[in-house]
Amino acid sequence: MTPARARALLDDPSVALPRPGEGRTLDRFAALIRACSDDISTGRLVEAHADADAILAEICGGGTAPGEFWGVWAAEPRGTRVDARPGAQGWELSGVKEWCSGATSCTHALVTAHTEAGNRLFAVDLGRPGVSADSSGWANTGMRDTDTGTVTFDAVPADAIGEPGDYLDRPGFWHGGIGVAACWFGGARKVAAPLYRAGSRTDDPLLRMHVGAVDALLASGWAHLQTAAREIDADPTGPSTRLAFAVRWSVEQIATAVIDRVGRALGPGPLAADPDHAQAVADLVVYIRQSHADRDLAVLGGLTGGRIPGPGPEPS
User: What is the pTM of this model?
Assistant: First the structure.
């Protein structure tokens, strides 16, 4: 079961997931890449737990504890919401939260909820009464093993994490977004693996052309993530919004192109007869839709301020 595999990875002392901005961000990205290169759904759950740990550390100086398995449930789709209200013993959450990975398997979650003062982040022990989860409605085979579903809260006690707005208004939010791109990159490597194996066994120039194209794409993605890690470690509290949007869009394009190239090079055979490859393609197609696609590009365009990437001065 994928959640069990994710928990085993998190408990493995050889798997290093240092928090971003502490000098070893590339090690963090590399661990996420390796996890998704092995199994995309497992890596996605590992990323969520690691993100929760980093969020707790950044906002309140805490972190996750051994034996816990955390999700970050921050989607805010139209039509459903979670409200937080003061109760007799503190805050209580009520409402419906969609797109919860690890819905029936996480022990704890960070959940965004609406308060009179604005949207706020809360930590919830999912073993408390009033929590019910359902992941049976996931129809696609892609990312099905992430146990993603809908969670309903009925006056569930919760601890406020920071103040209203703190979840989004922090440098680590964008560091976490680049961590997701590292997972996409790991997924692209997994999808590419059969092509690399086929290319090593043939002199077919057309097949080798596809291998070369995919190799250049993956080298570009790895370079993006290396650069991002260096910039985060050099200035952990500095602005990284533009960096995050650029890296995420670039890696999304790389993943999309890798899926296309591998399919064109190898034909339908691996998709039909190799269950591991077929699952990886299905997983990655769904996972990269976590990007907001062209909306993200529109935001990125507004962040440039006329500054062109590369060394100064600006071209005349």
Answer: 0.97
